[in-house]
Amino acid sequence: MTEELKRYIRLIPKAELHLHIEGSLEPELMFAMAKKNGVKIKYNSIEELQAAYNFNNLQEFLNLYYTGADVLLTEEDFYDLTMAYLKKAHEDNVVHTEIFFDPQTHTVRGVKFESIVNGIIRALEDGEKEMNISSHLIMCFLRHLDEKSAMKTLDYALDHKDKIIGVGLDSSELGNPPSKFTNVFERAQKEGFLTVAHAGEEGPAAYVWEAMDLLNVMRIDHGVRSIDDKKLIDELVKRQIPLTVCPLSNLRLKVVSDLKDHPLKRMLDKNLMVTVNSDDPSYFGGYVNQNYLEVAHALNLTKDDILILVKNSFTSSFLSEKEKKRFFDKVELADRSLR
Ligand code: ADE
Ligand code: ZN
Fold this sequence. Notes:
- The protein is 52% helix and 13% strand.
- The chain has helices at residues 3-11, 27-37, 46-51, 58-68, 75-91, 103-107, 113-131, 147-157, 182-190, 205-213, 230-239, 247-252, 264-269, 281-284, 288-299, 303-315, 321-338; strands at residues 14-20, 94-101, 134-142, 166-170, 194-199, 219-222, 243-245, 274-276.
- Helix 9 links the parallel strand 4 and strand 5.
- Helix 5 (75-91) packs parallel to helix 7 and helix 16 packs antiparallel against helix 17.
- The longest helix is centred in the middle third of the chain and has 19 residues, at 113-131.
- The relative contact order is 0.14.
- Adenine binds next to helix 4.
């Protein structure tokens, strides 16, 4: 790949729409928080921990990801975690980010919902002031738990509507179809939350249909398995439903065996509204620019492809039309100076 394309990727302003804040917990910070909070980690060193980042599927990753999150206890921890991510995002010229958090992972350990939300939001506010990064917060329901638990989590969120723009669905996909969460998504929508869901990561294209038709989601997270279903592709294109794709995640979780086989370029060529994101950057080998760089190299993407992906990231966001216009202008200005 040319140095010019690398520079283009690094310097073009972009939005990130698929980022689990708990998945941005770097080993150094994990060990520091464990020490501070008196939480035991079963690995003796950062190297030993990183040696375990060798996953054969989504579940193997999730097991480690949930254990890692055990070190997060206080509002300050959630603030520090979020601030560390924002600094990385800023280095990558991310000017708008929509981040996920998994409250159930923490509330079951006795952490207060307020501590989680207030810590994250305070960092997002400081990120806006200090780094000019705009942001939204999306609360995910864990799909391996039941709908009752999701409902209780939604109850908590009702007091924080001013801070949480939407709800999503994540965790173990296979065996936990979107249809399991029809009622909670219907209620969330009635309460004014926007909606997204992970679907078609490891699960089949049928789960993407369910997320669209039963949960009424506005975006699909991952959605790479949609490529198996021609009728689904036509529908996603027709409705311009965004798919927040995460190439390095797909590689590390063996959704694809080689980035050269990644469907991103085929998806672009079919006019699907695809975006590039980092998912859980601390665990998968890189933040958003690394995802663009590696997938661009593997699939021979051009500047024009990158520009489409970057524009898609703003189009697919939960920003207002006016805010989108402001970011499109920024992108176009940067594009002209980088050509
Ligand atoms: N939680 C964090 N990362 C996830 C992923 N890639 N898929 C499902 N749930 C997740
Ligand atoms: Zn994800």
